[in-house]
């Protein structure tokens, strides 16, 4: 009986060992963590009625699917419900315009920039979109309120700024309407005052661009007319002259409804019952954010530092992703890295942001395929992630280049 018991124990041990060996053979390695995802902070300012809600809705609707761009935006589901509700109100000829942000109201949206990495939709960039009512800049703050200080702090620390200029005010000013010109002047003074000391690139968005169709048949000529009007405002002209050499300042015309959807009836914009809803240029303000930040970083560097950074970018193309991440802290501690870290925004770019700059400055060399084959599975996934993100940035840069080709007047430069 004792011998039988021993044989049973031995048999069980053999079965257990075989099972463990089989499990070890079939066990898959833990999925590798993707490289860090940089998050860029965008602050948007515009007076009530300037079109902030329509712009935000248009941006998401235009970029929610990959189309021919190779990337798309995703938001948390609760924000998606809100955006869809606004969109239905905007696009319906039978509904009133959706209510915008009122004084004291702040809205923040989280845009994840997604693309395909190894067959899986993956977040490669994050954009925080913070929207403030412009009245916080033009009116005294309510007793006990800290919203005005929050706005000023957000502008000072933003990675990019979007300032909305109401196209209706521009039309009134162009026509010589003193009240419209006064409101435009007050709005620009307030926005320019808080942006003069900020370091981030700026996109001035002209909303309700369709109302200005009557100025000229050619869109770039219309934009020149509006640009000349704005450059006649002292504060606006001073900002462009002072910052355009080492700071990106844009003027982007946007219609969130299209050129055949609404009509100006006196001082009221009404939807046409048979209007055609076809937004134009709505995505360009957000698409310019990452390319402008990266380009502005380079503009802020002296020639020697730029050479050091390009050499570092070239050196990192020969590293595996894990090694590149390990060496980043050493690079940041050096002079070039310290200068780079303080180049935009509130004076700080995250390690993830520095990684993005370095990985997009130098394309992979001819030996890249051979090196990729020699990487571990974990590093290959990280390398695919980096290549996918580089393609997204290239797509964004292409959109900006197309904008400047189609509308040369959109890039603001000093006298």
Task: Write a short abstract of this structure.
This protein has 415 residues and is α/β, with parallel strands linked by helices. The chain is built from 17 helices and 9 strands. Strands 2-3-4-1-5-6-7 form a 7-stranded mixed β-sheet, with helices on both faces. Strands 8-9 form a two-stranded antiparallel ribbon.
Provide structural commentary.
This protein has 415 residues and is an alpha/beta fold. The chain folds into two domains: 39-289, P-loop containing nucleotide triphosphate hydrolases (Rossmann fold, 3-Layer(aba) Sandwich); 297-399, no CATH class. The protein is 51% helix and 17% strand. It has 17 helices and nine strands. It has helices at residues 2-26, 52-63, 77-91, 135-138, 147-156, 167-174, 178-195, 219-231, 234-243, 284-287, 289-299, 303-316, 321-333, 335-341, 351-361, 368-374, 377-406; strands at residues 39-46, 72-74, 107-117, 120-133, 160-166, 202-207, 249-253, 260-265, 268-276. Strands 2-3-4-1-5-6-7 form a seven-stranded mixed sheet, with helices on both faces. It has a two-stranded antiparallel ribbon with strand order 8-9. A hairpin with a 2-residue loop joins strand 3 and strand 4. The longest helix is centred in the C-terminal third of the chain and has 30 residues, at 377-406. The chain is globular and about 80 Å long. 38% of the residues are buried. Residues 24-32 have low confidence and may be disordered.
């Amino acid at each position: 009986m004792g011998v039988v018991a021993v044989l049973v124990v031995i048999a069980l041990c053999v079965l257990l060992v075989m099972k463990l060996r089989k499990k070890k053979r079939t066990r898959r390695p833990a999925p590798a963590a993707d490289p860090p995802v940089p998050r860029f902070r965008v602050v948007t300012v515009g007076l009530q009625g300037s079109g902030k809600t329509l712009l935000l809705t248009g941006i998401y609707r235009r970029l929610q699917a990959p189309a021919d761009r190779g990337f798309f935006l995703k938001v948390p589901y609760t924000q998606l419900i809100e955006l869809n509700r606004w969109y239905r109100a905007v696009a319906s000829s039978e509904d009133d315009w959706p209510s915008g942000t009122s004084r004291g109201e702040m809205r923040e949206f989280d845009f994840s920039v997604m693309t395909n990495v190894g067959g899986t939709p993956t977040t490669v960039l994050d954009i925080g979109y913070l929207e403030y009512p412009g009245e916080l800049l033009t009116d005294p703050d309510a007793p006990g309120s800290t919203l005005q200080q929050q706005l000023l702090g957000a502008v000072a620390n933003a990675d990019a700024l979007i300032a909305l200029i109401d196209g209706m005010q521009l039309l009134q000013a162009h026509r010589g309407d003193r009240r419209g010109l006064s409101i435009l002047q007050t709005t620009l003074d307030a926005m320019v005052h808080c942006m003069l000391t900020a370091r981030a690139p700026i996109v001035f968005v002209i909303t309700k661009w369709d109302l200005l169709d009557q100025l000229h048949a050619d869109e770039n000529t219309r934009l020149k007319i509006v640009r000349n009007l704005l450059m006649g405002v002292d504060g606006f002209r001073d900002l462009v002259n002072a910052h355009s050499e080492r700071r990106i300042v844009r003027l982007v015309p946007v219609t969130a409804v299209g050129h055949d959807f609404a009509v100006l009836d006196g001082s009221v914009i009404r939807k046409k019952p048979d209007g055609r809803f076809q937004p134009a240029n709505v995505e360009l303000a957000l698409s310019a954010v990452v390319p402008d930040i990266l380009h502005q970083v380079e503009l802020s560097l002296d020639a020697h530092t730029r050479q050091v950074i390009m050499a570092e970018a070239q050196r990192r193309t020969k590293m595996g992703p894990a090694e590149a991440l390990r060496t980043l802290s050493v690079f940041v501690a050096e002079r070039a890295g310290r200068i780079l870290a303080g180049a935009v925004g509130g004076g700080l770019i995250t390690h993830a942001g520095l990684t993005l700059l370095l990985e997009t400055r130098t394309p992979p060399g001819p030996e890249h395929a051979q090196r990729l084959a020699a990487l571990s599975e974990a590093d290959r996934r990280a390398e695919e992630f980096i290549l996918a993100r580089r393609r997204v940035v290239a797509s964004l840069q292409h959109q900006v280049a197309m904008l400047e080709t189609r509308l040369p007047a959109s890039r603001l430069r000093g006298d």
